[in-house]
UniProtKB/TrEMBL annotation, chain A:
Entry-linked InterPro entries: P-loop_NTPase (IPR027417), Rab9 (IPR041824), Small_GTP-bd (IPR005225), Small_GTPase (IPR001806)
Cofactor: Mg(2+)
Protein name: small monomeric GTPase
Enzyme Commission number(s) from the entry: 3.6.5.2
Automatic annotation (TrEMBL), chain B:
Origin superkingdom: Eukaryota
Keywords: Acetylation, Cytoplasm, GTPase activation, Phosphoprotein
Cited SMART domains: TBC
Start and end residues of each stretch annotated as Disordered: 637-666
UniProt biased composition (Polar residues): 648-660
Domain Rab-GAP TBC: 344-554
Subunit structure: Interacts with non-phosphorylated form of RAB8A; phosphorylation of RAB8A at 'Thr-72' disrupts this interaction. Interacts with ARMC12.
Name listed for the protein in its UniProt record: TBC1 domain family member 15
InterPro entries: Rab-GAP-TBC_dom, Rab-GAP_TBC_sf, SGSM1/2_RBD
Length: 202, 666
């Protein structure tokens, strides 16, 4: 019966203009703002949700994609529980850059075991008809790069956005559950950040 | 002798003189002491040493070359008279002392931390090596040596040659004046700069304040630490005593805080780590910048009450016309700027006035001259525009830089002020202009290219100008001011964050400490404010007002930093009461966007400026940030009609107040 709320940090990475901010806003406020500004600096929004009877506070981080701002963006990678690698299906360059984003994240987030880190890949703007990246290509990339779950989303018409975040949360929780069994409890704290510190174990 | 100490000579200069007569009131009237001045690294401490060269005594000369440890400490007992001489300088130092912190007076145990010969409490003649003591003739008693960490202040004087007066910490006797009859004082100072932060004291060109890393540390920890922890900190820093960054600095602070907090919850870690990384990124390269707040030396500043400030109505078309002569030259410009600062411009006048404010049109130009200028600039603009317009698709395929610029610009133009009537809808010509001007700017400054944020700076300018050419050149001028923000290393951003931190610490140490404790001392959360001058924080109309006020350059340089302070001042209560941490502060500040009241902020910022200005012992770093370094202001800076501008409490007159120092200058 005990409820515990975990605070999970999720970060959206990908080229500028693929729709990271729009995805975040769609997910948190369920709105799509066609007049949204491009992101400057670093922002985050919180979202409370329940996944498989786990209370979770998702802290979703969104950054500016331009190379120039890298040094002021990468410090925020630290402590991420999940990374959403995002490209736009109507922009092949953004797809080609996924690998770089993944590399940048792993490098700066200082992930202990990169092979096990939960990435989720989002191909955004599926509402657009002129695609430059096919579903198969994208799936193949995900397969080859660590068997990441892949979702085709549209921030504009809300396709798959919530589902993708749910999956991200499940991945993180599953990973932590596994870790729970393997490692004594106090080490787990490093990973999970109990918010309301109610006693453990449900 | 001294074989086991590691010694490295970092700087050496012969022909540096001491004038015993002036030091001792005439006991050695005729003789000047000539000697060798050195900076040495000894056992990881940087020492400044002076040894008289004794022509008559070759053994001593030999010795001087080899063995610095034989140098005698500045001889205390030669001193009653000297003390008086020194005290005559004292009044001049007062001002500086007021802003220099007091070193914790540690009477024992410090020796191991700081192997300076000049230990507090070692007031007896230095225990010198036997050899040199035997030679201790009149001359060698002028030898001295002190640790750079004890150096507080250097006064540079000129009387046909340069001489330096070195002021050490209270506990140490200051050495005699050094006369550089054969030059080299500048080299000496330059060398010192490699090991200490040297900045100009407020209001005094000739006075350089010195702070070295070690000292800054001990100061900052002054309130935090007890004896035990002190050792710990110092140990951490000894590895790298000369090169220390705010990043490292914060890290240690955090470390200490953790020690005090005891077992802090693990979930605190990521923000701290993020902060550490940011700290490294932001001030990491600042070592040679003098704003480094870690080194700044400020005790409690006594800021008076914030004076009430009133604003006025925007400058009307009639008022503007009254400042124009028959040929179209702008007259009474300082007064004009003053009323623009106080109230902004009515919208009808912006199109014209901004060109002057931004420097596209010279204030003293006539209508005719401006026509010529405009024609030339129009040509120039279209030449550059043609350059990118005429690049074929094939060419562009081989030009990744241009391609990237174009792609970035296209994406950002679609995401800039789209709710503004000038840029809304799908095929709004405003969007095309925004795009074309940004592309042309890439041609104008290809090294910079396009960086995100630039579209935000252009959009209001274009909106006001309603002309491609005018908007371009005004944007160019604006970018001249903002360029550093966008450069590869983002030096402008780093500098501003550090300057802001320095200011905030003066204005509100308790809030600054709070932020520092939340790993937010480097004010990362102000990034967007600074990058694009509050463009995203205010409504479009308020941005226009704010920018024209800023462009007057009044009441001081970097007024936008005072705006930051004003906003933070309004938010601090909430932030501290709610006990916001790193993330919450960032979120809170981000979410202030569009909720700020422009006139209120302007008033508050102006008030803060007045407060700082009337502060007596203004630290040098602060006055240099705000451009209040008034050692006899060069004529160009003087406003021609001081009387006219006097109605404003912020006219340049008050520089006299800040520079109350002139009274002390000999
Ligand atoms: N058609 C379509 N456009 C989108 C979608 N998501 C975002 N956009 C648009 O793509 C542009 C970039 O979106 P933004 O969220 O700013 O991208 P970011 O730079 O990754 O944060 C904006 O003009 C959005 O309106 C989507 O799902 N479909
Ligand atoms: Mg964005």
């Amino acid at each position: 019966m005990t409820t515990k709320t975990s605070l999970l940090k999720v970060i959206l990475l990908g080229d500028g203009g693929v729709g990271k901010s729009s995805i975040m806003n769609r997910y948190v406020t369920n709105k799509f703002d066609a007049h949204l500004f491009h992101t400057i600096g670093v922002e985050f929004l919180n979202k409370e949700l329940e996944v498989d009877s786990h209370q979770v506070t998702l802290q979703i981080w969104d950054t500016a994609g331009q190379e120039r701002f890298r040094s002021l963006r990468t410090p925020f990678y630290r402590g991420s529980d999940c990374c959403l690698l995002t490209f736009s299906v109507d922009d092949s360059q953004s797809f080609l850059n996924l690998g770089n984003w993944k590399k940048e994240f792993i490098y700066y987030a200082d992930v202990k075991e990169p092979e096990k880190f939960p990435f989720v890949v989002l191909g955004n703007k599926v509402d657009v008809t002129e695609r430059q990246v096919s579903t198969e290509e994208a799936q193949q990339w995900c397969q080859e790069n660590g068997n990441f779950p892949y979702y085709e989303t549209s921030a504009k018409d809300a396709t798959n956005v919530a589902i993708a975040f749910d999956e991200a949360v499940r991945r993180v929780l599953a990973l932590e559950e596994r870790t729970d069994h393997l490692i004594p409890t106090d080490t787990v704290k490093l990973h999970r950040k109990p918010r309301s510190a109610t006693s453990c174990c449900s | 002798m001294a074989a086991d100490s590691v010694l490295k000579v970092l700087f050496e200069l012969e022909g540096v003189f001491i004038h015993p007569s002036s030091e001792e009131g005439g006991s050695e009237q005729d003789s000047l002491i000539s000697g060798c001045l050195r900076i040495v690294d000894k056992d990881a401490d940087v020492l400044v040493e002076y040894r008289p060269l004794e022509d008559s005594d070759p053994s001593n000369m030999l010795c001087a070359g080899k063995d610095s440890s034989s140098v005698m400490e500045w001889d205390q007992c030669s001193g009653e008279k000297l003390l008086e001489t020194q005290q005559s300088y004292e009044t001049e130092w007062d001002m500086i002392n007021a802003v220099s912190f007091k070193r914790r007076s540690v009477t024992n145990g410090e020796g191991s931390l700081n192997p300076a010969p000049c230990l507090p409490g070692s007031l007896n003649p230095a225990p010198c090596l036997p050899g040199s003591l035997n030679h201790s003739s009149e001359r060698s008693r002028w030898a001295f040596s002190f640790s750079l960490s004890d150096l507080r202040c250097i006064r540079v004087k000129e009387q046909g040659w340069s001489f330096l007066l070195l002021q050490l910490s209270e506990s140490c006797r200051s050495p005699p004046a050094l006369h550089f009859h054969q030059g080299g004082s500048r080299d000496f100072l330059d060398s010192l700069r490699r090991f200490a932060v040297i900045s100009q004291a407020a209001g005094e060109e000739v006075c350089l304040m010195v702070s070295s890393p070690n000292r800054a540390l001990s100061q900052s920890f002054e309130n935090l630490l007890d004896e035990n922890n002190f050792g710990l900190v110092n140990q951490k820093f000894r590895n790298d005593p000369y090169v220390t960054t705010l990043g490292g600095f914060s890290k240690v602070t955090n470390y200490i805080f953790d020690a005090f907090r005891g077992t802090e919850e693990q979930h605190q870690r990521p923000p701290e780590e993020v902060a550490d990384l940011l700290g490294e990124v932001i001030p990491g390269l600042e070592i040679n910048q003098q704003e480094e707040p870690g080194f700044e030396v400020i005790t409690r500043m006594d800021l008076g009450v914030r004076p009430p400030v009133s604003r006025r109505d925007p400058v009307s078309s009639e008022e503007w016309s009254r400042h124009q002569d028959a040929e179209g030259r702008m007259i009474n410009v300082p007064l004009l700027k003053q009323i623009i600062f106080k109230g902004g411009l009515c919208h009808a006048k912006r199109k014209e006035a901004w060109k002057f404010l931004l420097g596209f049109f010279p204030w003293e130009s006539t209508v005719e001259e401006r026509k010529v200028l405009h024609r030339d600039k129009t040509d120039e603009y279209f030449r550059m525009k043609l350059q990118w317009k005429s690049v074929s698709e094939q060419q562009e395929r081989r030009n990744s830089k241009l391609r990237d610029c174009r792609s970035l610009i296209e994406k950002d133009v679609n995401r800039t002020d789209r709710t503004n009537r000038f840029y809304e809808g799908l095929d709004n010509p405003g969007l095309v202009l925004l795009h074309d001007i940004l592309m042309t700017y890439c041609m104008y400054d290809f090294d910079l290219g396009y960086v995100q944020g630039m579209s935000d700076l252009l959009s209001p300018v274009l909106y006001v100008m309603e002309s491609e050419v005018d908007a371009f050149w005004c944007f160019v001028s604006f970018m001249d001011q903002m360029h550093q923000n966008f450069e590869e290393q983002m030096q402008g951003m780093k500098t501003q964050l550090i300057q802001l931190s320095t200011l905030l610490r003066l204005l509100d140490l308790s809030f600054w400490n709070y932020l520092e404790a939340q790993d937010s001392g480097y004010l990362y959360f102000c990034f967007r404010w600074l990058l694009i001058r509050f463009k995203r924080e205010l409504s479009f109309q308020d941005v226009l007002r704010l920018w024209e006020v800023m462009w007057t350059g009044l009441p001081c340089q970097n007024f936008h930093l005072l705006l930051c302070c004003a906003i933070l001042d309004s938010e601090k209560q909430k932030i501290m009461e709610e006990n916001y941490g790193f993330n919450e502060i960032l979120k809170h500040i981000n979410e202030l966007s569009m909720k700020l009241e422009i006139e209120e902020i302007l008033q508050k910022a102006e008030g803060i400026g007045l407060q700082i200005k009337s502060c007596k012992d203004l630290p040098a770093s602060i006055s240099s940030i705000l451009g209040w370094d008034p050692p006899a202001p060069p004529p160009a800076l003087r406003t021609p009609q001081r009387g006219a501008a006097c109605s404003s409490p912020l006219s340049r007159d008050s520089s006299a107040q800040n520079g109350c120092s002139p009274a002390f200058i000999s």
